[in-house]
Write a structure and sequence with these properties.
This protein has five helices and 14 strands. It is an alpha+beta fold. The longest helix is centred in the N-terminal third of the chain and has 38 residues, at 3-40.
């Protein structure tokens, strides 16, 4: 057998091995996605359609109630393996960034009182101490937090796991919102979790504003009307951002930050959460997990109006 034939066989074997490697990697990626859903959203059925439609409200439906079209962002479970690797690199960079900027809260609040037993009660003085500590933290770290938030806002891929069917029967998000007096509206983003930790919503608006606990009302009409667990008052908390009407056209991004780990029985440094996005009555559900000390997560996003559509004017959004 001549050198050319040996070379051709070697190339063929290498091609087969590479093809097998690619197939195996794709299989492992699929298994990773399935494992992630089981870990972060164990009550959900297996992922049936990994390329679920990104259209929330299609263009041909926009004459109904004069609503513009709405598209959501790509989520990590919809990425190719190469795209996912790049996203993971960006995510690791964000985690490094929040550490470099010293935005972990332990340094300031570690000396404040914590409730170790679930039947203990906190006092008004305790609550004020925590609010004052958070205000102090913002004053000292506002510039760094803005820098970190700007980095997070550049992300175009959402980390939340898509909930493609109805949430579990025992989901009580609506009851939590009613309990806390949360408003509903044309655009509503609600975050729920099941321990005493303090998670925070960060809503990046089309105007460039960011709605969060230090900026609860935006000039573009959005409002954070429920903000919980600065002090660990509840193991079934909820937060809520809403535009009761007239949400601006453009791109919105939804961030979640693990602001404070409360050392309380049954509460850990990893917290599962669920996120509901309601846009003109169309609901999108997401699930995820966030670790204390990690970067703000860009969970999902959506755009109201197409590129051409953004130059048009719409009547009242109700």
């Amino acid at each position: 057998m001549g050198p050319l034939a040996i070379g051709a066989i070697a190339i063929a074997i290498a091609a087969l091995m590479y093809g097998g490697y690619r197939l195996n990697k794709r299989r492992n990626l699929r298994l990773l996605r399935e494992a992630r859903r089981k870990k972060y959203a164990p009550d959900l059925p297996p992922l049936i359609n990994p390329t679920a439609s990104r259209t929330v409200i299609p263009s041909d439906d926009t004459n109904v109630d004069d609503h513009p079209p709405v598209e959501r962002t790509v989520q990590i479970e919809e990425l190719t393996e190469k795209e996912y690797d790049k996203w993971q690199e960006r995510d690791e960079h964000r985690d490094s960034n929040i550490m470099e900027l010293r935005l972990i809260l332990e340094d300031i609040i570690s000396e404040l009182p914590e409730l170790e037993e679930q039947n203990e009660e906190f006092t008004e003085e305790d609550r004020v101490m925590n609010l004052d500590a958070r205000a102090e933290w913002i004053v000292e770290n506002e510039e760094n937090l803005e820098e970190h938030a700007t980095l997070v806002e550049t992300e175009m891929v959402g980390s939340g796991i898509i909930v493609e069917e109805s949430p579990p029967e025992n989901d009580d998000l609506d009851e939590r919102l009613e309990r806390e007096g949360g408003k509903s509206g044309a655009v509503q983003i609600s975050l729920a979790w099941d321990d005493y930790n303090d998670l925070d919503l960060h809503l990046f608006c089309p105007s460039g504003e960011r709605i969060y606990f230090n900026n609860k009302e935006s000039e573009c009409g959005g409002e954070l009307d429920v903000d919980m667990n600065v002090k660990p008052v509840s193991n079934n908390p909820v937060e809520n951002v809403v535009w009761t009407k007239n949400p601006p056209k453009g791109t919105y991004k939804v961030g979640v930050h693990f602001y404070k780990y409360h050392r309380k029985r049954g509460t850990k440094k990893n917290t599962k959460y669920r996120l509901r996005v309601s846009i003109f009555g169309k609901i999108q559900e997401y699930s995820g997990m966030i670790k204390y000390g990690s970067a703000i997560q860009m969970v999902t996003g959506f755009t109201i109006g197409t590129a051409d559509d953004l130059s048009k004017k719409y009547s009242e959004f109700e």
